[in-house]
Amino acid sequence: MIFADTKSNTVTVQGEGSDIFRELLSVITFIVKNSNMDKEELRELLNDDKFWKQADHY
Prior knowledge:
By secondary structure, the chain is of the alpha+beta class. The chain has one domain (2-57). The protein is built from three helices and two strands; from the N terminus they run E-E-H-H-H. It has helices spanning 17-34, 39-47, 49-57; strands at 2-5, 10-13. The protein has a two-stranded antiparallel ribbon. A hairpin with a 4-residue loop joins strand 1 (2-5) and strand 2 (10-13). The radius of gyration is 13 Å and the shape is globular.
């Protein structure tokens, strides 16, 4: 499970790797569907090296 606390700006992850990945994909899908961001713009963001360097930082 993925728990996000917006007040403390923290995320807690519990579970096995594949379950966490499926939940993460669900969260990303939710954000994409409810965002006003163009899907092509989002695709470019996720393919950007800066994004993955930031993700590796955490």
